[in-house]
Write a structure and sequence with these properties.
The protein is mainly α. It has one domain. 59% of the residues lie in helices and 0% in strands. It contains 4 helices and no strands. It is globular, with a radius of gyration of 14 Å.
Length: 111
């Protein structure tokens, strides 16, 4: 396993979590673009783990570490104050990778 795979395991959850936070905390701005990014990141992470099973034990830690950066990304992209977002990730691993889980109020985009 090269250095690229562990780096991807740190980067992809960050992007996914940032979009889940944006989805939850700015429902009025939800878009097909956000929906697509969530779906693509989920599939890419699953594929990365299938191709590199040795990374699976590090997933929980990677998500915890990624969440700090995800909050910063979401803050920067939404202009919401950082304090709005939970201190720790409120989504569990099953939810993060569930193709039917979109936090917050239901939306016609993900139905």
């Amino acid at each position: 396993m090269g250095k690229q795979q562990p780096q991807e395991l740190r980067n992809r959850p960050r992007i996914l979590l940032a979009h889940l936070l944006k989805w939850e905390y700015q429902p009025q701005y939800r878009s097909r673009s956000w929906l697509a990014m969530i779906r693509v990141q989920r599939r890419d992470i699953v594929r990365l783990l299938e191709d590199n099973p040795s990374l699976k034990p590090y997933l929980d830690e990677a998500v915890k570490e990624a969440y700090e950066n995800a909050k910063d990304l979401a803050m920067g992209e939404t202009n919401l104050p950082l304090i709005i977002f939970p201190l720790e990730c409120s989504y569990n691993l099953a939810e993060i990778f569930d193709n039917y889980f979109y936090p917050g109020e239901p939306s016609e985009l993900n139905e």
